[in-house]
Amino acid sequence: MSEATSQSEPPAKDLIGSYFLDLWLYTSKTLALKPETELKSEFEEEGEESPTALDTLNSSGGFSVVGPDKLSLLYPNANLHGHDVGVVQANRPAPLKRLLYYFEMYVKSAGAKGQISIGFTTSAFKLRRQPGWEANSYGYHGDDGLLYRGHGKGDPFGPTYTTGDTVGGGINYATQEFFFTKNGVVVGSVYKDVKGPVFPTVAVHSQNEEVTVNFGKDPFIFDLKAYEAEQRDKQQSKIDNVHIPQDASYGIIRSYLQHYGYEETLKLLDIAGKSTVPPVSVVPENSLNEKDGTYALNQRKTLRQLIKSGKIDETFSTLGNWYPQIVQDGTSTTCFLLHCQKFIELVRDGKLEEAIMYGRSEFDKFKKLSGFDDLVKDCAALLAYEQPSKSSVGYLLQESQRELVADAVNTMILSTNPNVKDANLCVHSCLERLIRQVTACFLEKRSLNGDQGEAFQLSRILNSGKKG
Amino acid sequence: MEGEIGLLEGLKWIKSLNYSQVIFEMDAKGVVDALDILEFGHIISECVDILSSEPYFQASSKKFITREEWEKRLSNIKVRKEDMNKLVMNFLVTEGYVEAAEKFRLESGTGLEFKNAWIPYWKIADIYLATITDRMAVKKAVQNGNVEDAIEKVNDLNPEILDTNPQLFFHLQQQRLIELIRHGKVEEALEFAQEELAPRGEENQGFLEELERTVALLAFEDVANCPIGELLDISQRLKTASEVNAAILISQSHEKDPKLPGLLKMLMWAQNQLGGKATYPRINNLSTAALEDPAV
Questions:
Q1: Does residue B270 belong to the interface with chain A, where contact is any CB pair within 8 Å?
Q2: From CA A190, how far away is CA A150, in angstroms rounded?
Q3: How confident is the model at residue B55 (pLDDT cuts 50, 70, 90)?
Q4: For an interface test with A, which of B239, B286, B291, B292 has the most A Cβ atoms less than 10 Å from its Cβ?
Q5: Do residues A139 and A131 make contact, with C-beta atoms less than 8 angstroms apart?
Q6: How far is A308 from chain B (nearest CA, A)?
Q7: pLDDT for res A348
Q8: In this record, what's one Pfam family (chain B) (predicted)?
């Protein structure tokens, strides 16, 4: 933080300012890399890699042959005993941070005895035995339809399978079970009593047995998406039984509108709320929370409108009139954000020369702000492109950037309320705090569960177009 | 050392008080685990002695997360403003606050969801917002007891809704009957019941029972206080209004419930689930979203 700023700004402003700078930096790093991203695959965000092929590095005895595409397996010779199984694991263990994992095996030929199997094993598994014959391994065998889970005797499980059948093996992290399918139908499931990563595994054992494996490159025979939806529904029905206060949602929406200064919407909502049947219980006009919530509401609305329409000069002069303390220090973060936005607006209007002049005269004094370099670089980069909105810094031209600046100014004004003790409360709305809490709970729960299972994803909730 | 000594003192004290069923929650997992392994020194073995002599004593371990640690985690979680705006818009639209939704569209630049896709705000045609207004008009009509009017409006909106929803149609007709009875129009009510509702009753046992129940209202002098008086209550209208609102939403490929209440329930559920394994700051008041320190 610059020496100049720390002398003239009270600590609260530093906190707020640096929060928004951090947010911009975060956006810059995540959005700037993939300008076209609207809906990133949630699995990408988790950063886990999935199995893609059969492993050819680890094998013992070489009793079976993996095809050149690494997705097929053949047992060429006759087997002699129980320790020459042609068993192969996938090249990576099954990823953990999701609800389900699944893969399939197609039996091209059951060969002499159809001693094929599909299952899951750990890295310690002896690669000469059928999955399920050793501890910490599970296997659904085609010749007898039994499920083996750790010793030589299997349990009755499902039908046998042979040439032409497709069987699948899956993990359900929510119920901690392995499940298996045959030709698109669930055969059964069994409790997953093994800790740590497990590898999808297939095995062949009698002469001329041949199988191919699908780790997701091709569509599955089994309708995994439908199964996933079913599992989510089961969990959802438990959640639906939770009781929450009657008008909790309405109150949270109100406080959101107050917090960010959406005054007109709030007025209309209040009017509508009084005339619903039964009328929504509205907060009493003079309660303390209400007063704090509506502090400077009209002014915050006005300033948000100015910023969202790109009128930065007017924003500066209006702030100078109403809240001089926010802009009197020309080197504060708020001023930095506003000056950058002015620069961006000039570029948007095609006034490149003016933008350069502006940048040269204004940016220098913010040198000492942390993150300054990266952010100014992003702004300046806009000048390099003929079509800046399609570049890696195109995010600056989107509404979300104006929104960020508007939110920052909004928070600064809220912090001028003498009743406010904790500046942090001005930064996050009630809704945001609730969303953070549920995200944190899911993450901790998952971490205590060996990092298995999915995290809370707001985007998934928003995009789940489930028909009632 | 502190863990074991603390546990030992605790055990001795509780034993002296003669409590029989006690669970000791400890945040020192190492100590708890050690209780299973008898080589860990004489303090542990004393604990084990007491524990094994008292049949109902148990020890469990729960992770303890401080306020500071929890707040640090929270601060690492980023929530997108656009996503929150979408949640708000979804609430306003589904609950039918048309004017507020329209104003929010302008004030926040948030789009609308239509047929499972998000439409940016500059593409929204007024025609879409009109469908919300129409839906609200139907809902209001039922809430005010103007069922004939409501049925007409629903058919104007989309004639398929009532065609594909026999249960809804029956409930609307039932409400009409209730309104006739409420206004003391006995003859008209009976005629209506016989001509419109009885044929439905023949098709469906459930409808027949409901019909009989409703007609039974006519048998009572003091209708308001009879055993089936609840049919005359406004809650009956509200139930039917909700049903028709949901049917319209579904016909427009929209979910019938806003997402926010579900999210709140998920929060409470997740907190309870985590509470079984860890002690951490919770949010108990949804309106203030204030963190409450874990009980020490």
A1: yes
A2: 13
A3: very low
A4: B286
A5: yes
A6: 9
A7: 92
A8: CTLH
Q: Which residues of chain A are modeled with pLDDT < 70?
A: 1-13, 31-46, 60-61, 277-278, 281-288, 465-468
Q: Which domain holds residue B270?
A: 71-79+260-292
Q: Is residue B1's pLDDT more than 60?
A: no
A150 and A197 within one domain: yes
Residue ranges of A 63-82 with Cβ closer than 8 A to chain B? none
A278 upstream amide cis, omega within 30 of 0: yes
Please count the structural domains in chain A.
2
The residue among A214, A248, A273 that closes a domain is: A214
Identify which of A167, A122, A123 has the alpha carbon closest to the alpha carbon of residue A149: A122
Domain at A59, CATH number: 2.60.120.920
Residue B28 has pLDDT above 80, yes or no: no
Partner B, chain A 271-300, Cβ-Cβ below 8 Å: 271-273, 277-278, 289
Hey, are the CB atoms on B286 and A244 less than 8 Å from each other? yes
pTM of the model: 0.77
What confidence score (pLDDT) does residue B117 get? Answer: 65
Angstrom CA distances, A372 to A8, A15, A216, A394, A418, stand at 19, 16, 44, 18, 31
Q: Inter-chain contact A445–B289, Cβ cutoff 8 Å?
A: no
Q: Taking CB atoms and an 8 Å limit, are A242 and B87 in contact across chains?
A: no
Contact residues, A window 408-437, toward B, CB-based 8 Å cutoff: 429-437
